[in-house]
Model the fold of this input.
Amino acid sequence: MSLEKQIMDQMKAAMKSKDAVALQALRAVKSAILLAKTETGVQAELTEEQELKIVQKQVKQRKDSADVFIKQNRQDLADPELEELAILEQFLPEALSEEEVEKIVIAVIEKTGASGMKDMGKVMGLVSKELAGQADGKTISSIVKKNLM
Done:
């Protein structure tokens, strides 16, 4: 089942249960998917990878917003963002631990022969492609930096 279908099913369930927070989060993702479909002018189907990137972007937006609100001592605004975040994360693949990410980073560094910070972009690209959706960019970046120094 495609991610878009799963989101539609969840939207229907949220409407029936009158879950406003879930409905808002799911509508935002559905809107982003529709926007991506129509950007090319032709309403083409998105690949699973493209749909996953859209959900990741929505999750990142929620995390960033919640962080800003928490730093400003506005828990009342952070709570809805965190609730939406929890709903959207169910559509992402299982996240890897930092140790698992580090193993993959080390393997890529050895495979490419990367030797310093000048090779960071090459390593980041390969690792990001391999881990698509299983780790966020900040985590990958910090681990790559640590291992290339």
